[in-house]
Structure formats: C-alpha cells, structure tokens
Amino acid sequence: MKVFKYNRWLVLVIVIGLLAALAISFQRNAVERANRQVDLAIDYEGLQELAQREGLPESVVLEKAKEAGISSLAVYETTFKKLNDNGKAAAIDGSKILESYHAGTLEDPSWRQLVASGKINGKEVYVVGHDPQTYKEVKEDLLRRLGSDRVTVLQVGNEEVLAVKAHYDSFLKMNLGMPTDEMKAVNDAGFHVLARPSNYENCTPDDVKAVFARLDGFDVSEIVFSGQQSLGAPKALQTTIDEMKERQINLGLIEAVTQLQFYKQDGMEEIAKGLGYDHVARLYSIPKDEQPKLKIDTAVERWSNTDEERNIRIDLLRIYDKPSPNMSLMETNMKYFQETHDKLVAHGYTIGKAGTFESYNASKVLRAIVMLGVAAAGVLYLSLVIPRLNARTRYQYILFVVFGLLAAVPVLMGNGSKIRVVAALASANVFPAIAVIFQLDRVRAYKEKARIALPRLIVTAAIALFVTGALSYIGAAYLSASLADTQYFLEFNIFRGIKLTFVLPLILVGIAFLQRFDIFDGRMDDTEGVVEQLKRILDMPVKIKTLLVMLVVLVAGVVFVARSGHTSGMPVSQTELRFRAFLEQAFYARPRTKELMIGHPAFMLAAMAALRKWPTMVFFALVLVATIGQGSMVETFAHMRTPVYMSFMRGIGGIVLGAGIGAVAMILVELWQAVMARARKANAAEKRRVKQTDGEKDCRIGILRLQECWR
Quick one: residue 261, left, alpha or beta (phi over 0 = left, psi -120 to 50 = alpha)? Predict the structure, then answer.
C-alpha cells in the first residue's frame, strides 16, 4: 500500500505561519470592532414629502424622526423644480410670457414694457427671486455653470431678473448648488447634513472652492457625491481633497446594486486615496423599486445584516409611501425608523456620524511569515499526491525554498500585492484539500474489522468533521492574513478567485483520492494512479442512463457555481429566502447553505461509506461533495468586507447544524438499509418456501405415478 508521509518540517513552518496569521487576524478583529458607529440617514426631501402627505407641519415630522433615531438628513442641490414648488424663486418660460402678453393677460407694466421693447425671447428662461438669499445663490451658481454669455441681468421695475439661454424643461432639472436654507433647517432640527453635491462641467478649482464655501458653518456628517462624477473630476480633484481635509469631512461611497464594490463615479478612487482610506465610509440604500415589497420587519432585518456583514456605515433610508395595516403613513414610517435604530443599537452599534476604519496594513514581517507558510502548504500538498516527491524530502526542501523566496521577498520589499492574492487563492484551495486528504489517510490506516454500531459511527463521523473543519480553518486564517488591509475591508480591492475556489478543491482532492484508492474495485494496494484510472474512466462504455446521470451532475455543478460568489447568476427561491431568514434569526451569523445542507452531511455519509465498506465509487462521490463544505468554510473569509469574527462564527454554525443534519441522514440510511435487508430476507424466505412447496408437490406427483405403474 502506498504510504504518504507528512513532512514534519513543512508542518512546523505551517504552524509558525499560522501563528503569524492569527496575530494579523486578531489585529484585524480589533480594527473592525473599533468601527461600530452608523449614520442613520434619510433624504430631507423624503420627510418634507411625508409632512405634505400627512398634512402636518414640517417641524413636527422632523421632531418625530429625530426621536425615532434618525441622525442625518441628506440634502441635495436645489433645482428650479423645487424652487418653483416652495416659492422662493421661479423660472418662467419666455414663450409663456409672450403668450400672456399677446393674450392680454400680462398685467405687470414692467414686463409688458420689456416685451414691447423686444427684450423678451421665447427661447429664453427668466429667473425671478422671491427670497434674497436664495436668489443670490441661484444667480451665483448659474453664472458659474453657464457663464455670463448665457446669463444676462435685466431690471424689471425695482427687481432684478435673470435672462438665461436654456431649454426650459432641462433648466428645471439643472442642479443649482447646495441650498443654505435647507442645510440650516436640517441643523436647526438637530440633524447632521449628509451633503450630496454634484460636479460642474469642466470643473475648476474655483468651482470646487465655491461648493465648500457654501458648506462652511454647517454641521456636515459626510459628503456623498451625486451623479456619475465626483466633485472636481477630472482636473480639480486635488482641490476637492484639500477642501475635505481642511474641514475634516469624510467621504461616503455608494455600494453598487450588485452589492459588490461601488457605484462608479469618476474620480472617487482618487479622492479616497488622497483623503486616506481611514476617511471613507460605505453607503447602502434599499432600491426604490424593492422597498415597497418589503415588510417593515424584513427591511429592519436587512439593515442589521447589511451593516454587520458588509461594513456599511451610512444607512440611507427611504420613506414608505403606503401605510401598514391599521397605521397611518406617519406611524408606519416612524415605526420603521425606530425599529431600525433599536435593532442596530441592540447589535452594539452607536448612531451618529459614520464610523471609519483606521488605516491598517499588517506588518511586513508577519505577512512574509504567512507567505512562507503558504509555500510550505503548497509543497506539502504536492508531496501528498506525487509519490516520488513524497519519498525525496530533499526535493521538497528545494521547492519550499524556491516558493518561499518568490512569495516572501516581494512582501518584505513593500510590494507583493499580486503575490498576496496568489497566496490567498492557494490558501482557499490547498488547505481544505489537505484537510480532506488527512482524513482519507486515516481511513486507509483504519484496521478495525468489526461492524461499528450506529451511535458510535455518528460520533466518529462528527469528530472527524470537526477535526477536518479545524484544519480547513487554518486556510481561512492564512487567506484572511494574506489580504487584510483597509482597502479590502472597504472593497476598493476584492478577491477575484471566488468562483475558482468552488471547483479547484474538488480537483485537488480528486487527484489525491485516485492516488490512494482504486475506484473500480476498492483496492488500496498498488493502485494504478491518477492517469491510469482516468484512462479507464474514459474507456468505460457509456449507457444512456449514465449520460442522464452525468447531465444531472453537470446541471447541479452549474447551479452550484452560478449561485455562489459575490454575485449570483441565478435567482433564489422564496422558500430558500425564508429559510435563510430563519437561520439569520437563529444563529449569530447565518451558516451557508452549501455547507449545512450539502457539504457537511455528505462528509458524515462519507464516513459511513468508508467504515461500512460501501462501493469505492460511492465513497469517492461523497468525498468530493464533502469537499464542497470544507472549501466553502475557507472561501467565506475571502469576503473581506465581512468581519473576521462573523466569518468564523458562520463556519462554526454550519459545522454544528451540518453535523446534525448529517446524523439524521445517517439514521435514515441505516433505517433504509435495515428495511431493505428485511425485504431481501423475506424475499429469500419466500423463494425457499416456494421451492420447498414445489418440491413437495413434485414428490407427491412422483409417488402417484409410481402407484399407477404398480397397479
């Protein structure tokens, strides 16, 4: 029988690397626990709309929202659509003025005189101010955006009017700068201002300074740019950075609809880097078309999970536009705000300006030791699947030195961003494979011949699952330590090997299995090896039913990969969503379905298959499925935005529940086998009885014939 030895020196390097990885993970955990403040925000316009729909004074709604826990109100740039509604300024279509003049309904003599003198153009827009401060800000911004060649000052009686060369409908939607009256109202009501400025066309440093000058004197929690460009893009970004630094204002970046990285805004990465990643927070808002479909308790749970699992620190809520049963619209929304606030506080968050991560990057020395550990693991795996290498430790050391230098030196030199990704990819695939291979070697060394009772078998399988999970978690520690820094926490960088980690561990384990077992007759001595067994598999005659089975396996594999990773290629059923919601309530972190429903139960059944001497082909299939669970446990840590402690607890919950489900599956299999054995026994007894009856009948017939002959 092939015996694969585990090089103790390589194992020692892995253990040392694990200690370094754990040190980094503890540092990461401290950084994550220090960032526990969430800005609970809502659009100021949303509360204004709520007041109007309920027929309440705006001050009453603002006071109730404050009591319910809202900390910031998002204030957007004003537009003439808003100004026409609130009456502080008006934009009048020149064609309408001419129409009124010719219809005899234009009564103001000053306007009539302008029309008569030919100064009113039907293709221009005329801006009239009713509030001095608002008019001043509008005039300033129009001149800045359109220039003096498109904005002309007219005198209508004692009032100043702006004549603007613009398309009327487009002009109504044009951004006109941050409104100081709204920001003052927000601060006076006790809220921070979540500023949402937009960019200027051909933005200049003066344009940027004008925006920040208007913010001076107000309590601003964060800036989240509106539109597809950050303020200052493309040539005045440094001015934006300098102005934000001077005022110590943090940047909020909007999570993309795929819940992966950010909604792309030109210049956002440059500003984030210039400010420092310790001045950046992630923002999430439930999509406008999705919120009406969510009940309040579901939406509240969404916020809790969002902040906990994706490092969101700005929760931008929307109002519900339809009341819940037996509640007014006001009561519905205040209940939503209050329950969201209370849920977050219950989970250990404080409410205020958005928290940010301190700038974190692990020690070069610790990271280099981690790289050496990954190199040792890679060589160890190769030695466990290549018999000649396993027998020649000298070559193992040579490979380790080569891999170790390639991995550790760039990190020590202060670079190594790419090698860290390679190390993370290796950790996510090699360590789960080694964990499963270790159990395969234990199975091969198992000598007991007596049949194991089911209770003992369940306990043995559960212990083996926990041991294998612990070994896989070594890979999780390595993966986390390889990538851990603030850029990964905020998803400026992401691990892009997610999909591969669902398939590669199966291949690595499959190779090791074929080196140890003959899947055709179960021999563990002198197996033909991987290549020869693959040749035999390819030479096998294929029946239609085999093709159908292969098709089912292929479809299952496609579904498995498509539903995994940062983004899902397939929708999730409502039943599964409800099951997930239950798990989220029952566990600190929801275990992953592929672990508790697929991988870990398969591991328990694989142990049963090995110890009950099932066909090796069945054992092989179960081992591969069991590897899915181990790989998933490690891959969870590749989602660096999720706190490391939560990822750890998610895996623990998956093992515990998966072991329970696996134990139930083992009991069901045992009962099924017992029922089938009884059925076979009864069938055999029936055949014996029938055979005996037929024999007695033949005997009687023979006796009768003899008697007839005698006569």
Answer: left
Exposure b/e, 48-69, CB count within 10 A at least 16 = b: bebbeebeeeeeebbebbeebb
Q: What is the mean pLDDT of the chain?
A: 87
Please answer whether residues 145 and 174 qualify as being in contact, where contact means their C-beta atoms are separated by less than 8 angstroms: yes
Strands 159-165 and 151-156: antiparallel
Distance (Å, whole) CA 225 – CA 565: 29
- Span 309-320, average pLDDT: 93
Express each pLDDT in 174-186 by its tens digit: 899 999 999 999 9
DSSP state of 560: H
Q: Locate 700 and state its tokens.
A: 């009687």
229 pLDDT above the threshold of 70: yes
In the chain, count H helices and then E strands: 28, 12
Distance CA 298, CA 319 (A): 15
pTM: 0.82
Yes or no: say if 85 and 79 are a contact pair by the CB < 8 Å rule. Answer: no
The share of the chain scoring above pLDDT 90, in percent, equals 52
Residue 483 makes CB contacts below 8 A (sequence gap 6+) with: 420, 421, 424, 493, 495, 638, 640
CB atoms within 10 A of CB 673: 11
Q: What is the pLDDT of residues 690-710, one digit of tens each?
A: 777 766 666 666 666 666 666
Helix (H) or strand (E) holding 666: helix 644-710
> Rounded CA gap, 212 and 236, in Å?
13
Beta-sheet strands, E only, within 276-419: 280-284, 312-317, 350-351
Please compute the mean of the pLDDT values over residues 300-311 and round it to a whole number.
Answer: 90
Going by C-beta distance under 8 Å and a sequence separation of 6 or more, which residues neighbour residue 543?
none
Q: Output the pLDDT for position 566.
A: 44
CA 80 to chain centre: 39
Which helix (H) or strand (E) segment holds residue 429: the answer is helix 417-445
Q: What share of the chain is helix, strand, coil (3-state, %, to 5)?
A: 65, 10, 25
Q: How far apart are CA 542 and CA 546, in angstroms?
A: 6
| 43: three-class secondary structure by DSSP | strand
Residue carrying structure tokens 């500003």: 271
